[in-house]
Amino acid sequence: MNGEEFRRIGTLAEVPEGEVRGYEHSGLRLAVVQLEGEVYAVGDECPEDGSALSDGEVDENEWSCARRTRARSTSAPGSP
User: Fold this and answer.
1) Hey, is 29 helix, strand or coil?
2) How far apart are CA 75 and CA 7, in angstroms?
3) Is the Cβ–Cβ distance between 35 and 61 less than 8 Å?
4) What is the dihedral of CA 1, 4, 7, 16, to 10 degrees?
5) Which of 30, 31, 48, 64 could form a disulfide with 54 if both were Cys (CB 3.0 to 4.6 A apart)?
6) How far is residue 41's CA from residue 35's CA, in Å, rounded to a whole number?
């Protein structure tokens, strides 16, 4: 298996399509998302500010941390 190791961290039902979930396994924090039937996991830390990616969202295959998600929602057209 090319040195890769796979571990079960949850069920597919726990990760609805397009929603990000956070998990911890063996001291690692992971952000997990299901997109078009495929499951992806990355380290659960925003490279910009260290916040949790699992508190953010994935839009068109781009991960956004909670800080960027909030900034985007408050700067939407029609916002005060």
Assistant:
1) strand
2) 40
3) yes
4) -100
5) 31
6) 11
**Residue 65 · residue 53 · CB < 8 Å:** yes
Give the DSSP H or E segment for 39.
strand 38-43
Residues 52, 45: Cα–Cα separation, whole Å: 5
Helix, strand, coil percentages for the chain (3-state, nearest 5): 20, 35, 50
| CA-wise closest residue to 46 among 15, 22, 27 | 22
Q: Domain 13-74 adopts which CATH fold? A: Rieske Iron-sulfur Protein (2.102.10)
Strand order in the sheet with 20-25: 20-25, 28-35, 38-43
The two three-digit tokens of residue 62, written as one number: 């781009």
* The amino acid at 73: S
- Residue identified by tokens 């800080």 is 67
pLDDT per residue over 15-70, tens digit each? Answer: 999 899 999 988 999 999 998 888 888 899 988 888 899 998 888 768 888 776 55
